User: Fold these one by one.
Assistant:
Number 1:
Amino acid sequence: MSVDVLPLDASSSPLAFWSYFLDHRSTDLGWLWDHTWLSVVPVVVGLVLALPLGWLARRHAWVYPPMMSVTGLLYTIPSIALFVLIPPLFGLSVLSPLQVPIALSVYSTSLLVRVVADGLAAVPSETVQAATALGYRPLARFTRVELPIAVPVITAGLRVAIVANVSIVAVAGTIGLDNLGRLFDQGFTLSVNEPYYPPIVLGIVLCVLLALVLDAVVLVVDRLLTPWRRAVAAR
Amino acid sequence: MIRFDAATKRYPDGTVAVDQLTLEAPSGAITVLVGPSGCGKTTSLRMVNRMIEPTSGTVWLDDTDTASLPAHELRRRIGYVIQNAGLFPHRTVLDNVATVPLLLGEDRRRARASALELVERVGLDPALAKRYPAQLSGGQQQRVGVARALAADPPVMLMDEPFSAVDPVVREQLQDEFLRLQGELGKTIVFVTHDIDEAIKLGDQVAVLRVGGTLAQLATPAELLARPIDAFVAGFVGRDRGYRALAFAHGRNLPVREEPTVAVGSSHPGSAAGLAGWILAVDAERRPQGWLPTADELDETVTDSRLHRGGTLATQGGALRSALDACLSSPSGRGVVVDDDGRLLGSVTAREVLELIEERER
Amino acid sequence: MKTTTLIAAAAATVLTLGGVSACGSSSSDSGSGSGGTVASGLIFGGPAEFKTRTDGIPGLQKTYGVKFAKYTVTDTGGPVTVGALKRGQIDAADLFTTDPSIEANDFVVLEDPKSNFKAQNIVPIINKTKATDGTKQVLNAIQAKLTTDGLGALLDKIQNDKEDPDAVAKEWLDDQDLDGAGTLAKGVSLTVGSANFPENVVLADIYADALSNQGATVTKKLNIGSREKYYPALKSGSLDLFPEYTGTILAYLDATSTVSTPDDVYAALAKALPANLVALDKADAEDSDAVVVTKQTAEKYDLKSIADLARTAK
Amino acid sequence: MIGSVLGWLLDPEHWRSTPFDTGIWAQLGAHVGFTLIALAIAVLLALPAGLVIGHTGRGSWLVSAANAVRALPTVGVLVLLVVVISPHFYGRTNAGFLIPTEIVLVVLAVPPILSNAYAGVQNVPPQVRDAAFGMGMTGPQVLGRVELPNALPLIFSGFRSAMLQVIATATIASYVTLGGLGRFIYDGLAQKDYPQMIGGAVLVAALALISDLLVALVQRYAVSRGVSRRFRTDTGPDSRTAVLVEEDVR
């Protein structure tokens, strides 16, 4: 264990968040990292699950309404309840770090299934017919024609999901799971007699920065995947 | 009467859409603004109801400077029809048509009643009145658009490419219907199109605009075809304008000759001797049905399936263009001329039509 | 009818902004002139589990005949409870005896002569496989030096001076001459956990730092929420060491237990723990639940002990 | 597990309030109350703003700004506001906690309502707007009689999304001592009463579902068939445009 007797910082001004960060750098960076992967992994899992499900909902019209009802229903379960419900359902230990990513994957999948289905629905039917006429088989047509065209809609959904996740992960911090939400709990606990802002403000600042950075990453990926849109925009 | 007086539209970035346009659209007539894209024809039109405000110059509506009225009051006096109709998706056909009367404060029941009349007047089934625009075809929507513009009985109508989003067959129907309606109503109309054929067909006068928003030529369609003022207008009016000009030359003194016929369904063809290979088949009302080759077995019954139907028909009193076309499209070389009810009058040859044209040019 | 109930409830709970009125206790200021007890005019605030715990509301009623007008769920001796009590949203609260905010706000701790609350001595609960002689020696040495007042002082540094719990822990070890480097715990690798309140965190830091100084490989998993979250982890072996309180852990393991003195509780705890867990020495330091009121309330009703709450209001 | 949850839900004792235990009816009422207050404020703020921004095309940065607000962590903002606001309220009032909670819920509800109202007006086909002006409607008439009715499907979808988020998020009111259905979740957790906790979660989900159905019903009657395209002859899927309206945290 590192021997770090930390300098005392008693300033409770909201602007003291930076020196608070410097004082607790290693812990805070650890929580930032936890927060990051907890936000990202579920979106990746959600996308991987949502692609086939969304395709199915698009392919068979009768699948769409029930699938949207189920995903919509899952989305209404409050995250705090889901965090607590998941361990017994999945046979995990109560403290398992997996409960948050699993719960968030449920949300991300719910959100993205609709996005994928609607994104595929937005592919012009002439394009699909042209691809079929050119001899694409269904799978190749899906991966090489329909999916690329649906990318803008899907990335729009990904941006929403990832930003939402950053906020939901913080909720898990209040029940003691490691991430930036812990800063809120800390700040709250230390605000017994008078407000102690630095950890709270630091938490908000880091969460917002993280959300913005992750959002930007998705945006960059979107740009890379759809060069034709840049060509149109540059004209 | 609508008068543009040095009307100019210059945008902040310096582009000039309409440059010093001076033009009069006489009352009761159709004035068509035509030109390539970027010529400012739509901008000019929209300056009339101030959807676009002129940068300088004046647009007069009879003796009123349009700038002197509040824009929305001005617009309620002017019918406005646009491409794709711009119908309100959330209102039924009837309520779309009743829009302006309701805006003018007319009582709802009366507005609807007169709207229903108008729906019929533009040639729509009144059963469609309760439908929503999304349930109509493009042509039907366009008719509703016209009905809506007519609802408050405005003396002036502005029409911005109203028929360009429908297929050619429907477009022609709409154009004919429009001319019929204008024959009854006699509105003062400014009509924008990029289609020179439409301009020539519909316009009492046609204003050709060139890119940059200047007026190239204002003339009647016949004059425009006959005497384009410069190379731009000539190029825009098109290569076969000499032939198209025949559409404005009447065929009253066409030397129509009697044409031997056989009746469809008869087995005795009558005398086919001396005919150059083809005989005209008619029905019981003497309406031409098609040509029968004389080389065929003439004693067999004349049936529909044996007829050549290539020829077009000309009407006596119609344009020379249709007469010449009837000759050129007929397998026998003899153009069939009918009366207004479609009954056979006789035939004419291309040579005879050309002689008539030459005679007139002299 | 149900709609009416709903609307009425919505209005009552949201719009009156009141934590009151559910049973018509008009306000604590007017007292209840109708001859009720002092408590029947007061609103009590505390954690949700205090409502059902044997030594919570049921215990207060059974032992002292105290019945409050209403119960408002706040938090577990945290900022919400303190703030609500300070600002008059509630009149009496469940706080912990070591809480420095009691002194800071001039709150009055009501005596508990009939020992309704179980003894709450600090006790390390450790996984048997990690309880080597060396680790026992290190931890028991700490236990011997922990006092209630000392704990309050540590907490004050964290809560009011905003010092880092780990720094406070190191400072304390230094003050107590317990920070010497050594090899007593060499070769032991363990994970130390704590609940998410400062006192528990600083205790875990003290244990962890001392063991680390003595050569153990220590992983900290601090600020884990409530007992419901961390106890299963402790039991299953993903946590090895946890600072606990004899009374609450006993109540958690055996809800029916009625013992309350320090030694009885400690003895009962030893029996109640599962085979893989063991309790080391209990410290003198105690952090027990207490019924706390503001100074004004105490003076107004002349309150010294919990029993006074059951008197007829004047 | 399911049986004990059902048992908890079906026990009439749990629906009634006592001085010590607020029953399901009362907490449901409180939850609905929090939600209605937040939605009412959010609609009053965001709907006119979104409509006007969409109509004039000016101030669209406000929509982007509101969307950026989604990046704020809900819990963090709640804690911050409680710490700032609650010390100013004394006596028998929960205003010190209610106000922060409502602010958080309003902040959550504004972006979807605002951006969908904006997008709804923006999505009105330009020729429809052109025709409306061309027929002599004034700006407010165009907005009220043409743009608003055509934007309704998107406005409703934004409202529904906001409502679901608010209902789900109102549970964290209980994190700062307020009532609402979150009470059962937090109390159940603290009291190791898992049927109560899951029952609370089920109630929240049910409330969300039923509210959504009710609003869907209102939408059916409020939106012109010409816009929703629910024609009797049309057997195609519901054409409600599901614009991304970004659910957030609960």
Number 2:
Amino acid sequence: MSQPQNPNADVLLSAQNLSVRFGGVLAVNNVSFDVKRGEVFTLIGPNGAGKTTVFNLISRIYTPTSGTIDFAAPGGQSGMLRLTDKAPHEIAKLGIARTFQNIELFEHATVLQNLLIGRHTHRRTGLWSEIFFTGKTRAAEIEAREKVEQVIELLDLQHHRESMVAGLPYGVRKVVELARALCTEPQLLLLDEPSSGLNVEETDDMAFWITDIKDELGITVLMVEHDMGLVSKVSDRVLAMSMGAELATGTPAEVQRDPGVIEAYLGSVDDVSSLRRENHPKSHTGASA
Amino acid sequence: MTAPVTDNAVLKLLNVESAYGPIKAIRGVSLQVRRGEIATVLGSNGAGKTTILKTISGIIDPRKGSIEFKGENITAQDPAHIVQQGLMHVPEGREVFPLLSVRDNLVMGAYTRKDRDGVARDIEAVFGYFPILRERAAQDAGLLSGGQQQMLAISRALMANPDLILLDEPSLGLSPKLTKEIFEIVVRINRERGTTILLVEQNANMALNASDYGYVLENGRIVMEDTCAHLREKDDIKEFYLGMKEEGVRADRRWKKKKNWR
Amino acid sequence: QSQGVSKDEIVLGSIQDLSGPLAGFGKQVRLGMILRVDELNEQGGLNGRKVKLLVEDSGYDPRRAVLAAQKLVNQDKIFAMVGHIGTAQNMATFPVLFPKNVINFFPVTAAREMYEPFHKLKYSFAATYYDQMRLAVPKMVKEKNAQKVCAMYQDDEFGLEVLRGAEEGLKSINMQMAEKTSYKRGATDFSSQMQKLASEKCDMVVMGTIIRETIGGIATARRLGFNPTFVGSSAAYTDLIHKLGGPAMNGLYATMTVQHPYLDEASQPIRFWATKYQTKFNEEPTVFSVYGYNAVDSFLRAASKAGNNLTTDSFIKAMDTMVIPSDIFGSAEMTFGPQKRLGNADSRMSQIQDGRWKVVSGYLNK
Amino acid sequence: MRFIFKTDYNQDIKLAKHGGHTFWYSALMVFMLTAPWLVDEYWLAQLTFVLIYAIVGLGLMLLAGFTGLFSLGHAAFLGVGAYTQAVMVNAGVPFPLALACAALLSAAVGMVVGLPALRVKGIYLGMATLAFGFIVEEVMARWEKVTGGNAGLHVHTPSLFGWELDSTTEFYGLCLLLCVGATLAIVNLMRSPTGRAFVAIRDSEISAQSMGIHIARYKTMSFALSAALAGLGGALYAHKIQFLSPEQFSIIQSIDLLLMVVIGGLGSIHGAFFGAIFLIVMPQMIAQAKDFLPPAIGQAAGLQGTVYGLVLVAFVLFEPMGLYGRWLKIRTYFQLFPFYRRGMFKRQKSFQKSDRLK
Amino acid sequence: MQLLQLLISGAAQGCIYGLIALGFVLIYKATETVSFAQGDLMMVGAFAGLAATTALGFPFWLGVISAIVAMMIFGFVLERLVVRPILGQPAFSIVMLTIGVGYVVRGLITMIPDVGTDTHTLPVPYAGQVLNIGTAVIAAEQLVVIGATAVLCALLFAMFKYSKLGIAMQASSQNQLAAYYMGIPVKRLNGLVWGLAAGVAAVAGLLLAPITFVHANMGFIGLKAFPAAVVGGFTSLPGAIVGGLIIGIVEALSGFYLPEGFKDIAPYIVVLLMLVLKPNGLFGEKLRKKV
Ligand SMILES: Nc1ncnc2c1ncn2[C@@H]1O[C@H](COP(=O)(O)OP(=O)(O)OP(=O)(O)O)[C@@H](O)[C@H]1O
Ligand SMILES: Nc1ncnc2c1ncn2[C@@H]1O[C@H](COP(=O)(O)OP(=O)(O)OP(=O)(O)O)[C@@H](O)[C@H]1O
Ligand SMILES: [Mg+2]
Ligand SMILES: [Mg+2]
């Protein structure tokens, strides 16, 4: 296996000339980008631009038609690992965790159990030790719980610790999914639309969390997001895609100013008052009175 | 042509209470939506907005209370029956038919309709709204991107040409441009066809501008209601739903969050 | 004192298939047994003891047979197991019966394991499939001057017994089985089997088959224009063959131990018996009804011989010198002894002629 | 209602969550240990069967209830275990060694079956295991030299250094011991990473994978463990029934096993036990009950099947969570006693979604 | 010549499997459950035909039609009574339910005094006739099966592909919740599906009756139809027929050319091979969840 040299010690993840085709659809078309250690890198783009597909390529759910993805070897070794040669379950072990656009939690388990599954890559016990539940297993379990509790506290999930995921509201599930990803103690965190379904205030919290994750935990974040407020608040760099191809790269402000991005993605300047009914109906008393 | 808002309520909820097993999700909600208007329900996560919509369309049976649609009591009726009365629900989380083609998904939207020509015309109309759907007409809906599925879910509801549409977070996962377009379409349909709309939306700014009347839901109870024009001016609404906070408040909150965190 | 015998009652158990593949037979065995038990009880019982017959359903499943046997032996405390159907089912219950000293009397299966290896609690009545075929096949070969004998058999212990008997019989006249082919119980398609036999140009086919498979196999052969002499065992000796199979079945030979009780049978005692059965249960009797009836009848003979003090030991003692004479159904005389636990090994040949079984030979004896 | 305040991680991990657990499970153990003196031989034999089937049920629960892989050929593993045990014990191998071999050989076969399971799910997996079951049954029937073929195989009583385990009581003791051991093993597994990985695979393969769970390995492991328990159960079954024939391990047996875990309650360890009790006791109850029915019905051919089917249908209709679900409700009812409200367990409408996509 | 006859016999038998498999595919496509009661419904259908033509004395064709109609009603009722109450539960519950229904149906038929435990023949006008194809022969009974299978398959295929009803059935199986949201009367459609499936089962039973006779256990042939459905892909109607043909022909050939015992397990070996090589069968769609 070729060991591509890391050209730049700062680069954590490097995608080169990625393309993937599904039948007639070229979902990702020759996209290249580098994610630097310690930054928040955001992918934006119209619906169907191929953002989620890029995530799926990184987590090896899809295999690229052409192109490569390299990841800085964990544990400070020099050199890059070729992700595209790895099996899907090996990705987490390397320190890449992700959330899903449509939320993929373990529905018939509690929040706590979901988070503990997140600790799977840190498993140290063997089958026999688990069957007899030896002291080692017990110690490992306690340690896993300590770690999980830290994440629960960070994300304010105490209240939901023992709830079944199936019964949680959409917004909480989003947070649980983030928590589960954090439990793997990743180097790189992939967030697919973390704020969708959250209201303004919750989006604010999300922004705080993402900043904390980056600053305090030192985790690099690669995210897909449509809420430009959040994007500007937390991202260091933004890559705009359209129809599978790269449209623009730069700081959030730069990208937002790009006419191509405005045309394809942002639309005209925010003035939603045009939606209002010209003649307001007169106020009426509600049925609840 | 603009359809006027009339005073008679198409949809009336009276003291509705729904629960999932022992957990009560909404507790005594009363609201009404008048013919031709766009009404919205605001509320934070888990407030029970989705539950209200599901209860209306018969997916959940309420414990108490009654629901009236166009003068008929539809409490705990079979969901299919309720749709046949002219009520369409765009559910949270898209819920497309993953293994049917995009076109067949649209055809299913028009299941209750008998007029073939009208259906064909409406398919063209939604293809006009969302050209990508025309492009993917023969593709399995399950393979669309998240946003594309959302477009499909909305289009599918339009296909039924209903009297009342329940919209649960229509902008979920849509690009800023499309979000705006979606609301324009919603408003247009309301104005042109006179379709009544009950809207649940996290993007309160959009919702409050597009709607005529709004309810605020907290912990399963309605705590405030008014015309959207008035709501837009209220300080609480501004702070909690529109995100127009003073810097001090924001920093305070940030600090509180941080304190918990080592 | 043995379990199951009290001052005024003898409790007998039986396990039948009442819901499985042989439910038709199981039901008839049960009715035959009931007929005899009722006759006895109406006459006041045996030495003042009425007989109580408990029948359990095994669904032709050995595991359920064991559970049923446990119930009968340990819960209902039966004195003897009578007329239990099925080879594997019987074998599976032996470990339940024997430690409790419960006799397995006249099981409705013609497998050698029902009396071999010797066990003092095993009694069997029917000529085994093995013996039937061992004696019938050489005789038929000679009679028909057959050159190539082949076999189609059911892929289970029953079919194998037929096959082994036939092979043994052929060996005695220095012949070999030219071709053999098997099928699984419940099979419906026999075309490849019959084609295989046809391509070998077999002129006699031994059928280790029961009912539907006998009919299906022969019908397929006739359709293919393949018309050897078919020879079946007593398992194929039932009126269903000609009733269901129609004229295509004419010419089939089968061995038999008791005669089918046709309602319009020429023999007056059989006709009388058959009518009685028909009146009581509102259905026509078959050979299986006769097996059930005979099993209970023979049990009663021995029990009566054992006298008032009926115990397992006294019953065995009575059986040690037991002779059961030939009955109205034409079964041969049965004799038992301290080491002889099979009544007899005799059977007769019969053939379907004009849609009805006809006896065509006397007893086949070694 | 009981509220438990957690002050220690150990509390979360502990098996007995509170005093009630300790008390009731101890009571159950005491009963099981004294059962030979409390119940008559017939019921002790049934109890032994229950324990044997519970072991098999635990295995199937692991596979179907926790990993979400439905096997329609589980009787094959039972058969492999049973025949291995019978052949080895008959050849004079000490029975503990034979037991171990039975479990291991079954596990090995389970791994082989696990292979197609890596690629197929749902109904296809059901069919793969069904096909496998038929093939194993055929092998048992055809490999006469070893299995005795359709003629069947008598199993000698287990013996260890000249000591024969022949009495009902002693064998019951053995089964009890193994059953408790198996239960502890599964309970332990389920509170460890492996057990959680199984549950993760059941709920969402894609996200299990993205959590670093090697799907293929864990599915194979689940098959192997499940088959090992079935093999162990099969070995005990061989001794209990003492006569083996291939048709005892047919599709009917496989379906019975599946019914056992479904009726017991999928996804709970209690369910395996409830199911085993049901599977053994139910036919006996029907047999007992029919003595009280008018003979025209009670003795009719087919009654047993009809009643069995009716009970099954009734279960699915009224208690889809199985016996364990019913038990939970009863328990909650008493715990809440004066405050119990009707409708508390009223099922909300539920909606099925394609599980072709998982 | 040998080979030709083998192929013809195999194909005829394969059509029987295909015919039964059609029922499985119908139910699976429309409700995403597997009905283990299909074989038993087939048996009941055959008994219904028997009752109509012998006990009631109807002329043959009238008897056949009334048996099919009666079975469709039976399917309806069955759905109403036992399937509908648990609609929405995981598919597996319904599988269990059908196993239970199979037991009950078989048990009840067995319980009919004087009829249930016996084997019967259904008198058909075309019984016993054979058709010569070159040197090979085929029975009229088999020919009828082949014809009926083709017609039924075409009809059902058209329904699922082109009619709104058929699409709606698939829609409800893929996402019941969304189907309700669309106003699709899921329950009524389900009733229809079960009615249709029972009707298909009745047709199979009636066509099979002259070949396998009518008896309470004739439904077990359904176990051979599973492999047919799997090989074809379980969601494809033409696949069921092709799968059936493959299974039938493999059976015939292995019965002739391979050692004893292979004929019985050949279908299952084919299934295992199929699942390893092409997990979704010959015509099954390749599915993958998009995340
Ligand atoms: N497995 C697949 N098969 C076929 N087409 C696919 C597949 N996955 C994705 N696509 C197509 O590729 C394109 C990109 O999809 P992707 O999910 O990456 O979009 P996205 O940028 O995440 O959009 P959104 O913001 O709406 O989620 C879409 O047009 C989609 O239909
Ligand atoms: N299936 C369920 N089982 C149990 N509880 C549930 C279930 N679905 C919702 N709930 C509970 O009902 C309450 C209301 O949920 P609902 O989904 O209506 O909230 P929402 O206002 O739509 O929130 P969101 O903005 O996140 O979509 C929540 O507290 C949630 O925990
Ligand atoms: Mg996306
Ligand atoms: Mg919601």
